[in-house]
Amino acid sequence: MQIFGAIITLIGAVFLFLGALGVFRMPDVYNRIQAGTKATTLGTMLFLIGITIGHSEVVPALKIVILILFILFTNPLSSHALARAAHHIKTPLAEKTVKDDLSDDEQSSEEV
User: What average pLDDT does range 46-53 have in this prediction?
Assistant: First the structure.
């Protein structure tokens, strides 16, 4: 069981690494937030599940479940708040961005 837990932990660590790499590689703030949030949410969950499977006699599973639920709910909410704040202060989008849905919503609400 420890080998299976180690493999799951390694996969989680790879996702965490790819999330960190995405933060450096993406062209603008919005893409960086998205890359960091998705990869770190999945990576952290896999990492914690792997630790629970590999060391079930040491780590209480209930604590890990509570941590996973906390991460699952707070990561998307915090990234959404950061993206809205960045858009509110008019942080520029990348040049390749095709459409800004939030800007379209703001313009239509100003017309009403």
Answer: 92
